[in-house]
Amino acid sequence: MDQRDILRVVTNEFSGLHTKEEKYNPFPWYKNMREKHPVYYDSKQGVWNVFLYEDAKRVISDKDAFSSKKSKELPLQNITNIDPPDHTRLRSLVSKAFTPKIVANWEPRIQDFTKGLLDQISKKNTIDIVEDLAYPLPVMVIAELLGIPTSDRNQFKEWSNSLVAGPSSTEDIQETINQKNKATSELKEYFSHIIQEKRKKSLEDIISVLIQAEENEGKLSAEELLSFCIVLLVAGNETTTNLISNAVYSFVENKTVWETLKQDPTLIPNAVEETLRYRSPVQVLPRRVKMDTEISGYKLTSGQLVFAWIGSANRDENKFSNPEYFDLKRNPNDHLTFGKGIHFCLGAPLARLEAKIALSELIKRYSTISIKEGYQIDPIESSFMNGLKSLPVIVE
Ligand code: HEM
């Protein structure tokens, strides 16, 4: 199974998600799969798909039976696609840059960026949540954390887009691979240069913290540092953009939510959590079977690819009561959106903080929000992410 195969599989030819509406709202299809084919072998692609909460959770967290080394040829080996013991060592080193104290220190900067973006559009009463806020904010934050000039932001976003893009059809696969390889080599060159500069002059950004880990303990190789920078750029950008715009979409779709949050802003963290469950920015996580195993009586053999549909798991009726309902008071809310187990999202506290700040600022500024008349769902072109390319809303 190589990169091409994985991309072919994520085009989900078996899914029946064809229209834009179906792509942004795959939930009825998931429900159908949970009821009729909770463990589905796609014989055309030779790939397993699991749709239930317990199965998806096991696939992404049982590191003995399922490997994160998804494909043989990878443009970049990084923390997301390695297994223990390599993963254990790398994870413990890079975690140093994401302690709760470090993340809390970023709060004032994130607030400044958010206010700055909303000030620019303060005179308009139709704004585009994606273009005006959800798209620029995460890249500004990542650039700041990595200590990278904000002037490089647009280039940054382009690289990130190429790396997360999925093919919209099988014909696009080669083109997608070419784009990813090009972006990866450009990013490598870019970060090598930045790292060299930071070796000369250490500051307080993440790259400087990691350079110290590399120099003091000698355990983080230069190659690992480089690939980690690239992962941060990719993992933290589009996902957080989608979280913010999916949250606003969920608010306009579920009319009372905005009003409730206005009256009680302490519920905003719950709204973030419920958006993560209800409309996960990442819908599916791949793993490779490491040793022969069984899921709900089906036999999976070593080497096969499995897709864990976390977007479906998050709406599994056996785990969540009334899962199709956006519940601001849902508790517990043990969604799988940031993964589970050893690969659990390192940036989860940061993503939650960014979304909380962005939504709080919107709710503070505007008394009402509604979708612009005539808006047609405009999903991003990715079969493993859920998000919008544009979300024009009327604010008052
Ligand atoms: C891993 C989702 C934001 C950095 C993951 C994983 C998921 C995920 C599902 C696990 C992948 C797996 O098990 O194969 C998300 C979502 C986000 C988000 C939904 C936003 C809403 C961020 C941010 C950063 C980040 C802001 C950093 C700035 C990482 C890293 C890993 C990771 C480094 C790899 C951890 C490991 O393999 O040990 N993320 N992420 N993520 N995420 Fe996030």
UniProtKB/TrEMBL annotation:
UniProt key word Oxidoreductase: yes
Superkingdom of origin: Bacteria
Coiled-coil annotated spans: none
Keyword Transmembrane (UniProt): no
Key words, A-Z: Heme, Iron, Metal-binding, Monooxygenase, Oxidoreductase
PANTHER family: CYTOCHROME P450 YJIB-RELATED (PTHR46696:SF1), P450, PUTATIVE (EUROFUNG)-RELATED (PTHR46696)
Family: Belongs to the cytochrome P450 family.
UniProt name for this protein: Monooxygenase
Source species: Neobacillus massiliamazoniensis
Name of encoding gene: yjiB
